[in-house]
Design goal:
Elements (H helix, E strand, L loop, with lengths): L4 H15 L5 H18 L10 E3 L10 H7 L5 E3 L20 E3 L19 E3 L11 H8 L5 E3 L15 H14 L5 E2 L2 E2 L2 H10 L4 H8 L4 H14 L20 H11 L1
Parallel strand pairs: 1-2, 2-3, 3-4, 4-5, 5-6
Antiparallel strand pairs: 6-7
Helix pairs in contact: 5-6, 8-9
């Protein structure tokens, strides 16, 4: 009589791995490697099971494991690394060239975190991090991820609301300021971006002439580089003439400063 004890134990272990695949980093790697190995033995054709969504939430990570980058960087469209310890070490994201959706909720992202260039990313969740000042964080975010359509910053001090002691004026200033930077944004936090908000954002937070042109027409990299140097010297967030209320986290600058900046750039 044949002994099926070992075979039954292996099958039981495989079932447990499959059940917990999306919640345990170790098991996830094991399942993927196991499946790829099985397919390579059973057929000469490449596997049709391409992983395009991956969750590494609650894994206590502060860097991305090399195995994950090597195995998934070319196929992933959606990546959830929420509830970890990522801070300013995000250059690994440049390896995920096809990423369109990224969840970084509940990490240690702060004002000085700079994302790599990710032109395909359209959805970014940054809820409950350590972002306290909008400027220059939002400016840097736009330069790295210019095509964002969905952005969520709730739970940060830089995103005032009645939940963290901000007034309605603070909330409105914050919302319009962020909208002014992202021309493709259709949803911010828990609300859609309306045409009226887009128009008001452009009116309140005027941008340099050359910067507006780059959104609609491609320019040589040398001109963009020169513009960025000048903008870093002269540009500041432009707010209305009203005095800065309590809790506002953008800096006030008269409209005249913007006029001087345009002359310098031109």
């Amino acid at each position: 009589m044949l002994d099926y004890t070992n075979e039954l134990e292996l099958q039981k272990e495989a079932d447990e791995v499959e059940q917990l695949a999306m919640t345990s980093l170790g098991r996830l790697i094991f399942v993927d490697l196991h499946c790829r190995h099985s397919n390579s033995l059973s057929s000469d054709k490449p596997s049709v099971d391409v992983v395009d969504s991956l969750s590494l939430a609650f894994e206590n990570l502060f860097y991305m494991p090399f195995d994950i980058i090597e195995n998934y960087s070319n196929t992933l469209h959606t990546l959830d690394i929420s509830h970890n310890k990522f801070s300013r070490n995000l250059q690994f994201l440049a390896e995920f060239e096809n990423l369109t959706s990224l969840n970084l909720d509940h990490n240690n992202i702060d004002d000085h975190t700079v994302f790599p260039h990710m032109p395909k990313l359209q959805l970014l969740w940054l809820n409950h991090n350590n972002i306290e000042e909008l400027y220059p964080f939002v400016k840097n975010l736009y330069e790295s991820i210019p095509n964002l359509r969905y952005l969520c910053l709730m739970g940060n001090k830089a995103a005032p609301s009645y939940l963290n002691g901000g007034t309605f004026y603070d909330y409105l200033q914050y919302r319009l300021y962020v909208i002014s930077w992202f021309p493709h944004l259709v949803h911010l936090d828990d609300r859609a971006v309306t045409p009226e908000q887009r128009q008001e954002a452009k009116r309140l937070f005027k941008r340099p002439l050359l910067e507006n042109l780059t959104e609609n027409a491609p320019l040589p990299e040398c001109i963009k580089h020169l513009h960025n140097k000048i903008a870093n010297i002269f540009s500041k967030p432009t707010l209305p003439y009203k005095s800065k209320p309590r809790g506002t986290n953008t800096q006030k600058q008269p409209h005249r400063a913007v006029t001087k900046q345009v002359y310098c750039i031109i």
